[in-house]
């Protein structure tokens, strides 16, 4: 699993990152990045007694050089976190944790009983879900994305898949594999399933959702057009699915169909949309999928991307080595991923 930003920051910020953020001491810069991507509220330093408590915003992380995976929660401003897997009878793996079946009230009680810590530079963020059973994607699910391709909106959802080898964390790197010359971006709201789900109605579908995270559906457009039009190779290369920074419980999101989502490359805005532009809403996507297959806890559904992908700009634009992609969704957080050579 790539952790290149973390490794870069142990030395000094790259020149690209220095253009986006002030050049400061590496450990301070790393802590700033952590708070910046995790926080959805006030991000400046406060006195310890004023720090917000962690809430139902779940992260997987490592502590320094300790390779033991841990599960924790963070505050809305990203300044504090608490480890749940250290003594709250909670699994250290998010997927196993989902299967434990805790209610939101039980989780809040557990959070109240664990020790809160100030965000620090020894924390290494992992993908919040490391081993999902399925990563299901939806193509052409935003009106603007259809329009930029001069296509009519589909009458049925266009489903395809990515594999878990594509997953990397919210500060990890995207590899510009030598087999592709047309690397593209797509910011997406990702749904994380909570329970086993089969043959559910639209009315009941949202009850099977645990929460939401950000996904960056990196795509090799040249390979997406090859193999008879099959998306698999062009979508599933290693590092082609950064996710994070946290899985935010559904109770923390007012209306998932009214969230802004943005993508910038090297600080230049490429995508700026709202989830209300979805053609097929989340409840319908879940209901449709569950009519064909069983959805399980931890399965991820990428719900589509708004207009502004590189392939359909005039002239087309593609990612290159050194580029920095920032993905942001309201109430969820941000990710910052750098493109590197193989």
From TrEMBL:
It comes from Glossina austeni (Savannah tsetse fly). This is Fumarylacetoacetase-like C-terminal domain-containing protein. SUPFAM superfamilies: FAH. InterPro entries: FAH (IPR051121), Fumarylacetoacetase-like_C (IPR011234), Fumarylacetoacetase_C_sf (IPR036663). It comes from the Eukaryota. GO terms for molecular function: metal ion binding; oxaloacetate tautomerase activity. The keyword Manganese does not apply. Keywords: Metal-binding. Pfam families: FAA_hydrolase (PF01557). PANTHER family: FUMARYLACETOACETATE HYDROLASE DOMAIN-CONTAINING PROTEIN 2A, FUMARYLACETOACETATE HYDROLASE DOMAIN-CONTAINING PROTEIN 2A-RELATED. Belongs to the FAH family. One of its GO terms (biological process) is oxaloacetate metabolic process. Residues 134-339 form the Fumarylacetoacetase-like C-terminal domain.
